[in-house]
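Dear all,

This email documents one entry for the complex benchmark we are building for the journal club exercise. For each entry we list the sequence lines for every component of the assembly. Then comes the predicted three-dimensional structure of the complex as a token string, followed by one or two observations. Please use this as the template for your own entries, and keep the labels exactly as they appear.
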Amino acid sequence: MTSYLIRGARILGGEPADLLIRDGRIAEPGGAADETIDGTGLVALPGLVDLHTHLREPGREDAETVETGSRAAALGGYTAVCAMANTSPVADTAGVVEQVWRLGREAGLVDVQPIGAVTVGLAGERLAELGAMATSAATVRIFSDDGQCVADPRLMRRALEYVKAFDGVIAQHAEEPRLTEGAQMHEGEVSTRLGLTGWPAVAEEAIIARDVLLAEHVGSRLHVCHVSTAGSVEVLRHAKARGVRVTAEVTPHHLLLTDELAASYDPVYKVNPPLRTAADVQALREALVEGVIDIVATDHAPHAVEDKECEWAYARPGMLGLETALPIVLSVLGERWELIADRMSRTPARIAGLDGHGGSLAVGDPANVTLVDPAARRQVDAAELASRSRNTPYAGMTLPGRIVATFLRGEATVLDGKAVK
Amino acid sequence: MIRHLLSAADLDAETATLILDTAAEMAALAGREVKKLPTLRGRTVVNLFYEDSTRTRISFEAAAKRLSADVINFSAKGSSVSKGESLKDTALTLQAMGADAVVIRHPASGAPHRLSSWVDGSVVNAGDGTHEHPTQALLDAYTMRARLGRLDGLNVAIVGDVLHSRVARSNVLLLSTLGANVTLVGPPTLIPVDIAAALSKTTRVSYDLDSVLPDADVVMMLRVQTERMQDSYFPSAREYARRYGLDVPRMRKLPEHAIVMHPGPMNRGMEIAPEVADSPRSTIVEQVANGVSARMAVLYLLLGGKA
């Protein structure tokens, strides 16, 4: 195994120091290495962990595969991603989660941790075999019907209770379906002007409020996917103050973009939950800093061209995220490296139970490392992305930060900003 | 002159007034024996209709033909669209055929915006989803000006299902630009959120039709689909008619000179009583005639005619 000596990088933004990667682990600096990387001006972070990725395989390999999505993740500085269950067939059995897990191992670019569906076929009617997925080779711990809300309160209660047996967590897509029938974008001034059916903030907030009370009642862990409104932040703040075991994520796009972008009717800006107002963006940023929102997760959602190059109402919701997440968080939070490491690596690894990820780059830790050049600025070019899809809302934007190298257990997956394989 | 007419917000007061003045000249033609102008000879206008709309399609067709344009009618039913062709592919086909203008009616809000990014010719929005219908607003403004002599300072009440109405959105925008005072009236469930902030700061909202009528110069009744009842926007057609329908006793509350408008097609007995629709105050038939003149003016100006 090739050993790497990274000279003079700022570990977690600290003073420049040498970082030695040998035999898959962080080693005591000293002695020679096979390769030396000049780390001057670079920042070393624990490899990023994404709790919310759509890899589309099996079923929509024209939009993304485990391999292409893994490559996009590595280029974005990730060493682990959690693959959402809304594939075709749905990842609601041990067989499908093991298939995704195996494809991830074969690609070998990031650890692909499958998420299992909560309900059979994401239909929201009866529990999938959660225990079988938990004890499969994929050792599933996060369960989610993402894309669909587990709307039935009794079913949600049962799911929260059931996964306690194997320390599982339910990741809820909070969207009261009756309040969002036909919804196309955030309900507000802009939806009124554009004549697009509104997706009211209360549809998210009402489900989060219900679920934190359910989680408290049965003493279970709840994770809230892609929090998008200021009101949701208030509900979470209240729940955390009461000691409810709830964690929450926010996407890079909800930290940066607003519903005004829908005025172009270009479905590259269509996403679920929808882009909200500038006031929501501000509240989400503050909540992320404060810790009311625990992590950043991408909700990387590749879509084929024909599913986006059409009328807004007919387009599929979702946007790419893996390759641009860190630059966006950097532009939003600034160079607060401890905070970034916590929100994008340490805490997501803890929620997902991913051993070996989210460390502190201490000697002896598995060498899951990301090297970032914060001074570099890069214009996003959709054609250059490693994802098989092109639906990035950031095309043409110039963002700070370039991922220079990524190491997965000591193996370089990205060097000099390029994927190794 | 602007290149496309996608929204009534594309029109400033000067441009809107130019269109209305041009429409008046076009209307003068209708009285002649030969109703045709050679202006758009050799130009091609495509009517691209993804929704059935006899009224609007025929109006645009008559307008283009009176300007001597070649007209191609393309309806989604029984065409390549029903075989699954995308809007973009249809756009590229029309582009290859050399369409100078595409008039589009589509059930999805924003479809004309998307189309305008794929074709070189002018795009005219003939109604998109629950978004806008700018030529309807132009013909309505034309009708008000013809009947009442002005738009500036007029009190216009637009009554009914504003939430789902493209006619209402375009009218609020255009009338506000031209100085009229618009009040939207309907049950709270059918008034969209933040409407004043969304469209025009001067827009007012009322849930009480009776209180608005004595000061109204114009009452525009919107079509209310009875299906809205199933979605609990209101309890029943009967209750809707009682609270928001324009019947004879309500019509008597209007000032002497006030007019009653409706974009059609009407639900007689629901939002408007037959006696009101057929009264001398009603402009419903004039609106249809004025539609041709207004659309002639739009095509003429968009395709480079000089007023």
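Observations: Residues 134-283 of chain B form a domain with the Rossmann fold fold (CATH 3.40.50.1370). The CA atoms of residues 192 and 198 of chain B lie 9 Å apart.
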